[in-house]
Every structure is written in structure tokens, then in C-alpha cells.
Amino acid sequence: MERREEPVILFQASLSLVVSAANKSQAAETAAFLLNRESIDLSPVQMVNGQGEKAEFRMESVDAVEWTRVEDIREGGRFKVYGTIRLKLRAGSPENYASVIRAGLSGYHLPRSVIHDHTVWVIPTNCGPAFACVLDEKTSWKPAVQEPAMLVAVG
Question: Is the pLDDT confidence value at 25 over 90?
């Protein structure tokens, strides 16, 4: 019997996160505490395509969260921390998987904010929600792992 799985969707986003801290190094530590591989809840991720159709993806794992740069935004101890997050996702249902195949994976992205012309991603964590500005995002397919068919000798 051959078992097939749907392919994994690799999602990567460049983020910025505003944190309160006394200095740049403390800001980097705060961002790393708030958003890291262990703190992010594996909650569904809503995405939309170019036609406005929504699809829900299951967050299978957080591969990495890397913070690379800190900028003082000159607002009384507030800093903007920049980094990258990499996730493995799967289509939440067979219907979502079929619509993703029809529309093409590259057409799906996190929804834009109604207030601003950019994406604010509310990431659920064990410390409460983290509000991250998405600067760039990309998705790609990783082929599904296929187990070899079992051969049974008859006779």
C-alpha cells in the first residue's frame, strides 16, 4: 500500500518588531524572547491569493527565527528589531490544497492591513500575541516524502 502526503509549503518572511528596551542589545534579547522557535504557537495561518480567496494553512513547524538588526526609532526606549522567520506549512484541508494547486502557491500571501498598506501579522505566542510588520515574504513547495510501496509475496 502506497501512502502519499501533500507537499510541505516552505514559508519565509522578513519581519520587523517594535519592542521597548533600555538599549539595542536588550531590544535584540527582548525580540528573541518574544518570538523564537519555542514561543510561537503552531496555530493556523490565514493567507489570501490575488483574487481575495482565503485559505488556511496548518503550521507544522517553526524552522528558524533569526534577529539580525536593531534600529533606535527615537521614541523613548522603543526599538525596531529586524529578522527572518521560516515555517513549514501544510494546506489545512483537501479543499484548501486543491485551491492552492489551482491558483498556484506563489499567489498566496498574508493579508494586507486595512489601515496601512502593509502586512501586520499577529503571531500567537505563549507570551501573548506579537504584532510583526511583514517586509517581504515568499513561499515554495517542498516535495512530499513518499514511502515506498510495500511488496507482499503471494504464493
Answer: yes
